[in-house]
Amino acid sequence: MSLSEEQRRRGVIAASAGNHALALAWHGSQLGVPVTVVMPTVAPMTKVQNCRLFGANIIIHGDHIGEAKDYALQDPALQGLTYINGYDDVEVIAGTGTLGIEMLEQVPDCEVLVVPIGGGGLIAGIALAAKTLNPAVQVVGVEPRRCASYTAALRAGHPVTAEVLPTLADGLAGSEGSEGSEGSEC
């Protein structure tokens, strides 16, 4: 909704193993915005197919989300599309904050929210909204051991490249973590 008319006409691009891709594909179909998503080879086929059903142009490239992102940003054929980052984007983080609001509306006496950490946009938005509404609520982030890039970044105090091993938590599998509470590029 924050795109200019020109950006809407040209379309958007993202790199995603599935969850961000699905959200963009669905919203793009609702708003008439062309969506291209670069998905790594490990992206679940059901997520790939569902993105296609929503009308997204899907490009399979890279062994993990980091390689998919590099391709999305560097391929000359994709220039002119607006890159929508699934974790490091103010509007995306604000959107995920609505989940924190909904959770506390449904369970007002909630004491703990457990949130997966992939790129970090989900936990950033949920934590921001939930802690604003209820400063006492504890927000706990979880990530797969086989892709612990956020933990590695916190230990190092800056973004690092972490080892990526196969995991059932496909939407959380990446290789580079960011420092701070905003999240990681996992």
From TrEMBL:
<dbReference type="Pfam" id="PF00291">
    <property type="entry name" value="PALP"/>
</dbReference>
<dbReference type="GO" id="GO:0009097">
    <property type="term" value="P:isoleucine biosynthetic process"/>
</dbReference>
<dbReference type="InterPro" id="IPR050147">
    <property type="entry name" value="Ser/Thr_Dehydratase"/>
</dbReference>
<protein>
    <recommendedName>
        <fullName>Serine racemase</fullName>
        <ecNumber>5.1.1.18</ecNumber>
    </recommendedName>
</protein>
<keyword id="KW-0663">Pyridoxal phosphate</keyword>
<feature type="domain" description="Tryptophan synthase beta chain-like PALP">
    <location>
        <begin position="3"/>
        <end position="175"/>
    </location>
</feature>
<dbReference type="GO" id="GO:0030378">
    <property type="term" value="F:serine racemase activity"/>
</dbReference>
<comment type="function">
    <text>Catalyzes the synthesis of D-serine from L-serine. D-serine is a key coagonist with glutamate at NMDA receptors. Has dehydratase activity towards both L-serine and D-serine.</text>
</comment>
<dbReference type="GO" id="GO:0006567">
    <property type="term" value="P:L-threonine catabolic process"/>
</dbReference>
<dbReference type="GO" id="GO:0004794">
    <property type="term" value="F:threonine deaminase activity"/>
</dbReference>
<dbReference type="GO" id="GO:0005524">
    <property type="term" value="F:ATP binding"/>
</dbReference>
<dbReference type="GO" id="GO:0003941">
    <property type="term" value="F:L-serine ammonia-lyase activity"/>
</dbReference>
<dbReference type="GO" id="GO:0008721">
    <property type="term" value="F:D-serine ammonia-lyase activity"/>
</dbReference>
<keyword id="KW-0456">Lyase</keyword>
<dbReference type="InterPro" id="IPR001926">
    <property type="entry name" value="TrpB-like_PALP"/>
</dbReference>
<dbReference type="GO" id="GO:0030170">
    <property type="term" value="F:pyridoxal phosphate binding"/>
</dbReference>
<dbReference type="InterPro" id="IPR036052">
    <property type="entry name" value="TrpB-like_PALP_sf"/>
</dbReference>
<dbReference type="GO" id="GO:0006565">
    <property type="term" value="P:L-serine catabolic process"/>
</dbReference>
